[in-house]
Amino acid sequence: MPILAKFALVQGVVQVLGFAAGLLIVRSLPKQQYAFYTIGNTMVGAILALADSGISSALTAIGGRVWQDSRRLGSLLNTALQLRRQLATITVVAVVPVLIWLLAQNGASRLTIFGLVIAVLAGSGLELITRIYCVALRLKSEIRQIQNQALVSALVKLAIVAAALFIFINAAVAIWSVVIGYAVQYVMLRRWVRREVDRTAPADPAMRSEIVSVLKKQAPHSIYYCLQGQVTVWLISIFGNAESVANVGALGRLAVAFALLSSITAEVVLPAFARIQSMHLLRRRYLQIVAGYSVVSLLSVAAVAIFPRQILSVLGHQYSGLSADGVLMAACAVVSTTGGLLWSINSARAWIVPPAFLIPCTIIAQIAMISFMDLSTVKGVLLFTIYSWVPSIALSLWLALRKMWWTPEFA
Hints:
Distance between the termini: 29 Å
Largest sheet: none
Helix content: over 70%
Radius of gyration: 21 Å
Strand content: under 5%
Number of domains: 2
Oligomer: single chain
Order of helices and strands: HHHHHHHHHHHHHHHH
Number of helices: 16
Structural class: mainly alpha
């Protein structure tokens, strides 16, 4: 419990700093500029998800066997970096044209598009390397290092945004504040890796084959969850206008309450869940995690429903009229994070919903919804996103029930 409490405290500070920087951005940028910022941030997330496609999961699995050997761990990291560069190249070729088109569709100038594309590429490149190195930190249980880097990165971002308010701020400057935060974390991680890992170790063909085998299983899910996680912004960018994109991006700040909970779950709760060897305890912990997450989620939605004006006031006067949409956004955040939680719990035990079931079910539901829903409005895309998560949640619950209650042995 002391470890969990300490981790939660530091992560809480990091989230508060990130939330403060986000609020400064949303309150200071005109709606069109904030729309550009939202699109840029969304595409960074898309690149990171697609360029990973299961590499981090494979790293964790293989690293669990070699983390005490500096040379073998270095070989593993270099193998993963080599693969990630190849995936990143393919991803960038696919994503950048979409980014340019979405920005142009919402009225961005050529200079703005150029600045945002460079910022997105720089931020993605730094973070892709950082995420590889972070796996080594976690394997060695360097929780303090992880927290120090996150804290310094958040402070730098907040300082840059605060300084920009007195000089000049637009969407590109806001994105670059995120990029510089990534750069600071990258430098700190690189120093740690030089001390703890043999970076001269060559890539290992056997490790590469093992990572690739995981990629083949995980890639369809990675693509699915990437598209699913970004679908709200993409749809409103295509069917709506810059104001609607800004509204969705601003309302997305309300989901910050789930960021801390998700971080604690990923870094502390799920690793412990993965180590459980008693079926009785496994069932109990599963119910406790889901129940606890559900209570916090419902309380968050209730808070937005009871105090919509007070909560929305932190976003600034530009977004004061979005009370009804605020409740929907909170509900959307609950549904999407619940879907992610259930997927993560199952993944911790290597229980993977077959993509042949999940992806077609979701696509069929979405095609049906597109035909009758108004996707040019904030309400329409939020409802679309909520309903799109239903197949994933249902199948994840079904698989967990099957593994824990309907089969007598560990799977």
